[in-house]
Protein: 3-dehydroquinate dehydratase
Organism: Vibrio coralliirubri
Amino acid sequence: MKKLLVLNGPNLNLLGTREPQQYGHETLADVEENCRKLAAKYDCEVECFQSNTEGQLIDAVHKAGREFTAGECVGVVFNPGAYTHTSIALHDAIKGVDVPVVEVHISNVHAREAFRHHSYISPVAAGTVIGMGTKGYGLAIQFLLDD
Ligand code: DQA
């Protein structure tokens, strides 16, 4: 069975209680469960990983890259959190592998503080979903799985 990775960066483990006016009331477990249910309709498994540590996110991208090359992983749905705006290392990690990565932001970062307007991830992403709430994860999955 094919597989995709739902990858979440720093502070997204706090979903549900963190700034609900920006990020809504769903927990990360709710989001991950919805991703699993949607992907199952496409006969696809979902692996979920969240980390507050940049290096662990880089390692997860590298692993997905190896699995893509082996024909096991079809893509990555990635909300890099604040590393979006700071991480050249994550930019390089995505650029260094072949797996398609869809960048997701729950909030509309362009309607927020200026420091959220720049993304190091967008130039190396297969696509971006911004400001669609937690539904954005599902839209990214459809993009990766709809033939
Ligand atoms: C976020 C937006 C980022 O600016 C922020 O640092 C996050 C979440 C979003 O999903 O809207 O942690 O990626």
In short: The longest helix spans residues 54-69. The chain has five helices and five strands.
